[in-house]
Amino acid sequence: MPPTTRLGPYRRIDLPAAAGASLPRMPWSHRILLENLLRCADAETARAGQAALLAWLETGRSTEEIPFAPGRILMHDTTCGPALVDIAAMRDVLAQAGGDPARLNPAVPVATSVDHSVAVDLAGTRAGLAHNMAREMERNAERYRFMKWASQSVTGFRVFPPGTGIMHSINLERLATVVTTETRGGESWAVPDTLVGTDSHTPMVNAIGVLGWGVGGIEAEGVMFGVPVALRIPDVFGVRLVGALPDGVLATDLALVVTERLRRAGIAGEFVEFFGPGAATLTAMQRAVVANMAPEYGASTGCFAIDGATLDFLRATGRDAGQVALVEGYARANGLWADPDADPRVTDMIEIDLSTLRLSLSGPRRPQDRLETAAVPAALAQMRGAATDTIPADAVAIAAITSCTNTTDTGLLIAAGLLARKARALGLSTRPWVKASLTPGSPAAERRLRRAGVLDDLEALGFAIVGHGCATCIGNAGPLLPDVAQAVEEQGLKPIAVLSGNRNFPGRVHAQIDAALLASPPLVVAHAIVGRAGIDIARDPLGHRTDGRAVTLADLWPSAAAVEALLATAMDPGDVEAAAREAEAAGPWAGLVAPATARFPWDAASTYLRPPPFVTLSPPPAGAFTAHPLLVLGDDITTDHISPAGAIPPRSDAAAWLVERGEDPRDLNVYAARRGNWEVMLRGLFTNRTVVNHLAPGAAPGHTIHAPSGETLPAWRAAARYAAEETPVVIIAGERYGTGSSRDWAAKGAQLLGAQAVLANSFERIHLANLIGMGVLPLRLPEGWRPATLGLVPGDTVAVALDPDALVPRASIAITIHRADGRVQHGTATAALDTARDVALIRGGGMIPTILRQAREGETP
């Protein structure tokens, strides 16, 4: 039995007893993992895992595997949609096999927010909020009815309706308990709040001491049905913070520095922990900005331990005094309370002196490419297009205060409002070619900004609240202003976006924009005023007063004291729940009518919801194979490149499929909204205009050469040809394959294309898990083999000597390239499988067949 003790009326795992003298040296995240292991695993697994976690302290590394049983799951509409489609289709397959479809219900509670679908169709006016929500419902009513069916027919599934906020803000403000209670064996237990989420920014909640990270939708489906997460004991990279942020330097600047430094250190899936005296100077909201960007700096999590800032945040967001007392009492008693002088054992570490930080931006193509303000003009110089008579060559076409990353920190929004107030007083306004918008993650932001007295100032500069969702950050920026869009298409203008989001990959923010700068909310407002991106925003004039004197950023920038004074006025603990109730009552969710049946009644004519062909009991063929490369790609292929989220182009194959079935070519919605339709998603794969396929470098994005015929075809058509010919295919890529969003469709797409394997120099963690969950074998290319230099041509084939019975974690697998000209090249690849669970999923054909087989046999998955 694991050591337990009592905390008032609750039993708890006794971590000080379990870890003994080693507890002060354990990383905070490992303490949570140990508690979870001792409480949830069987006795033998718990003992072995406990020994492995303590042994980790000797070297800071381990290859041992432990299970993790999260207490809950967090999803959003465009990841839960595909998962629910899978579940509905799985219920059908199970029923057809003679099983009970009602057996397929989550064993772990699932909360879903509807936040990824709102688009900024109308901006710059208070009317935008109602207009954009109405358009959202017009486009997505069918999907939302499907979600409501699930909320009524799938037990343990809760939906936060449109307009009630972004999932990560909801998680911080409403769902997270930090410490929760549960009943085990008839007793009440106090336990840490833990979760996984189907979004890579799930670690935002780590800011208040809740351990959670992003997983792919496929892995989440396994967790739903009781399958623990299997993970190798994580390496922990420490970030020791010292000093304090200087006056005028913001949490965004810290997040961009952290992203730059950790990517430079080569972070690739580690747990990152922030500690030291500097961490104690940061508020929970400031920490949330840093924790949110864990995927951008390559980490699984970005953790802060529980301390007084956690308690302050819980009080400020309406948690009751009893809950706050439970959090403090449990954390102090169980060794989870932060110590500013702690010196934990970590795998590696850097130190950041907060007092040395300055204003920063990031871009124009990657979040880790941090820029001092003076370096921005040179960074954008090579991307400059043509100016017009009225629009400069470096025009800011989109200035968006968007994303939970920065808008959950009310202090950042107030800083933007104060800058807007000063600009307004000096007669400055937003330039006419700039589309400005404000889409905060929480509806409570409106109450806070109005109470602080700065919402009118933001609205006067065009930053009216036009939605409560991901919006511009996820690529739902809506159309550019007409003159700008026309200049892009006809005159060679290459405008720039400036946003307070977390990603700036080419084409992500808007299909017509390849360059984007990440910036704090007040810097977004400043760029809207000047209307240009290729300047030193800290020193160059932003505009002129009525008397002709230049106005610079220093004239407008608010002091930390001014922000703090208004922040104290703005916050009210009752805002969170009151604003959420108001948003839900004003929305259309209550009026939606959905079927109340165990099996979903599919509509064969639907263009949104179609049961996918990969939901089957039959595993794919296994064993050695010889395949044609379908696509040969370079480095930094993101999940946005693989499976787009934004608007469906009217001249695309996906659009053609939709229009053939009666959809309006002028309003096809976004790919993210169509993720329940595999036909549309298949046709969108790899069509990002920056994707280059080295097999057919001159072909349109998403195209390849079908080797037997020599024809250049869309990849999905070529894949269908190969499948008809019973010829396997593989995808080959470079470094960091699958970075970015945790969208499962990037892996589902590979499976639908018939890829037996993906061979890459390296994989990003969540996409790797999704590939494994879909039964697609991930292989790390042999040392020295790079797609750009292999020189693969149509007709070359790749032989993979796979023996499923001999497959183990990190197995060496011989691969041979047979050149079309007769040459042969031998190498040894490495299976990118870290755990026995990974191996079992590949052998079993993926997560869905595994769950179905167990459910058919009457087992608990």
What would the keywords be for this entry?
32 strands, 30 helices, 7-stranded mixed barrel, globular, 861 residues, alpha/beta, 5-stranded parallel β-sheet
Summarize the structure.
This protein is of the alpha/beta class. The longest helix has 27 residues, at 127-153.
Describe the structure in your own words.
The protein is an alpha/beta fold. 35% of the residues lie in helices and 18% in strands. The chain contains 30 helices and 32 strands. It has a 7-stranded mixed β-barrel. The radius of gyration is 26 Å and the shape is globular. The mean pLDDT is 94.
Write the layout of secondary structure elements.
Blueprint (H helix, E strand, L loop, with lengths): L3 E4 L2 E4 L1 H5 L8 H13 L2 H17 L5 E4 L3 E5 H20 L13 E4 L13 H27 L3 E4 L6 H9 L3 E6 L2 E6 L1 E4 L13 E4 L2 H8 L4 E4 L3 E7 L8 H14 L6 E5 L8 H9 L8 E4 L3 H9 L4 H13 L14 E6 L6 E3 L7 E3 L3 H6 L14 E7 L1 H4 L2 H16 L9 E5 L4 H9 L2 H6 L21 H10 L4 E4 L15 E4 L2 H10 L12 E2 L5 E2 L1 H4 L3 H11 L4 H12 L38 E8 L6 H4 L10 H8 L17 H7 L18 E4 L4 E4 H10 L4 E5 L11 H8 L2 E6 L4 H9 L3 E4 L6 H4 L6 E4 L11 E7 L5 E8 L4 H9 L2 H10 L5
Parallel strand pairs: 4-5, 4-9, 5-6, 9-10, 12-13, 12-15, 13-14, 18-19, 18-20, 20-21, 24-27, 27-28, 28-29
Antiparallel strand pairs: 1-2, 3-11, 7-8, 16-17, 22-23, 24-30, 25-26, 29-32, 30-31, 31-32
Helix pairs in contact: 2-3, 4-5, 4-7, 4-30, 8-9, 10-11, 14-15, 14-18, 14-20, 15-20, 15-21, 23-24, 26-27
